[in-house]
Amino acid sequence: MKPPVLIVGCGDLGTETGLRFAAAGHRVTGWRRHASVLPPALHGQAADVTDPSSLPPVDPATGIVVIALTPGSRDATGYRSSYLEGTRATLAAIDAAGARPRVLFVSSTSVLDADDGRTLDETAPASPASPTAAVLAQTERLVLDVPGGVVLRLAGVYGPGRTRLIDRARNGSAGDARHWTNRIHRDDAASALVQLASLPDPASIYHGVDDEPAPEADVLAFLAGELGMAAESGEPADNAAEHDPASGKRLRNSLLRGTGWAPTYPSYREGYRAVIAGEGSRHP
Question: How confident is the model at residue 231 (pLDDT cuts 50, 70, 90)?
Answer without folding.
Answer: low
